[in-house]
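User: Before I run my own analysis I want an independent prediction to cross-check against. Here's the chain; please return only the structure tokens and, at the end, one sentence I can use as a sanity check.
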Amino acid sequence: MTGAAPPGRTARLAGWALGLAVAAVVMVHQRDVGLARDEVVYMQIGANYADWWIGLVTFQHGVSEASVTRSFGGPGATDNNREHPPVMKTLFGLSERLGGALGIAPVPAARLPAALLHGVAVALVYAMTLELWGLAQAVIAALLLAALPRALFHAGLACFDAPTMTLWFATVYAYWRCMDGRRWPWQVGVVWGLALATKHTALLLPFALGAHCCVLGVLAARRAPPAGATRVARGLALVRAVVAYRWRVIVSLAVLGPLTLFAVWPWLWFDPVHHVRDWLAYHLNHVHYNYEYLGRNWNAPRFPWHVALVTTLFTVPASTLAAAVAGAGVWIAERGRAPRAPLLLLALSAAASIGPFVLGTTPIFGAEKHWMPMLPTICIAAACGAVWAARAAAERLGLPARAAIAVVAGSVALAAAVETELAQPYALTWYSALAGGAPGGADLGMNRQFWGVAMRGMLPRLAAEARPAGTSFVYTHDASPAWGLYQRDGLVPRTLADAGWEQAGIDHSDLAVVIHELHFNRHDYLIWKSYGTVRPIAVLTSDGVPIVSLYRRPGR
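Assistant: Structure tokens:
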């Protein structure tokens, strides 16, 4: 740790300026990103949630089990998307309603809350790093978090993954600040409750926070051991000291966290025990979707234990990873020097986020999006490593430290920013230099797409293929759930109708699209058989990697 003077007001406000700038960048990039299957559900359900809350505050209806069930629940496991907590869906819906009043298109309006929360993540990473290490590390850490190709992509979707990273880290940061001994540490419980109300993975956080609190309790007890006591008495005194250490923080998590979740999720207001059990049971028995990893399609455990580690190596810019390795070395050298053990806390946070995915049984279909909460730790470590390397070079070469930091740390951030810009809008196809870029990832058999988002790039060609008169039928494949929204937004004419699903849809179609994933190969074969040709009329690529193919029925 630097041990520098506390940061001034201007330095603290700079983090929020960076956050707003990053949110704006996300909104610019999302314009070219197609609609994900999950987004279609979340936006539709979010609009219903928002309407319920608007109706409640405008006294159009009261609170009754019937009205809550109609909007938030139902007998089926996925009725009204009750398997996922409501906070982000509600924000998507409210933002879409407000955007409509302001003349903003529905999709960007619904995506705005996730983009803003990504900016909050950047600001919080900046704030914690500024307080612990200083301005240079804070700026670099914020820039490196912003310059993550996959994270920027996820932040542009009306989904939960980027917001979950934000609220996970917000909980970590609030916990660390609340461990200063304050009398009413309500912040950590409320923020964790919001994280729980965003995604169930926040349930992993107490493992990290609890372990950290126990370590600090043991260290505090050892600094003031009871004098003249027997070994048994000393052991009991140690246990009591650990249990009593910062007990208000634990109470805040245990009480305010669930209460916050309960307050923002009306479905829990009636029969909460049963509904919480249903929510958790759904995810404990989650279906295993298809996912390509190192040339093989995986859709059932056991999965390779190294999926999360290798995928992280291939989806974080190589310059950021190299700096993070140096930063980890710096952290090891600094261990024990800072109050409240922030290095241990950041390490435990990352471990809790990625840990379940080394078990071989946790669903991996979403890859890096599932363990995104570890990314702030990587970026803070990378900032520390880059600044350390710059200062070491300056000392050896006799250069001004500030100039060296600008060159070395700036180069790390610039390299990551270049990769991030090149990756958009098909960041799911992008892989880092360690994998050999997008072509290397494809050669290694890494997943190149999911959720149907790549269809967006093929829409102009599809629109050009529409009949001058009458209706054309299109096999829209994995983009079928989003097709109506593409028509609504004028990206394709309404005369381009969805032909239906599987073989019947293909046989009924004039045009057919395949969004390339390993387990979708059979759709090519079905089209070849029905159309009597193996030649697409257009192929959408990202850095030379095919991601969408378009076929036209001969003689059409």
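Sanity check: Residues 391 and 401 are 6 Å apart (CA to CA).
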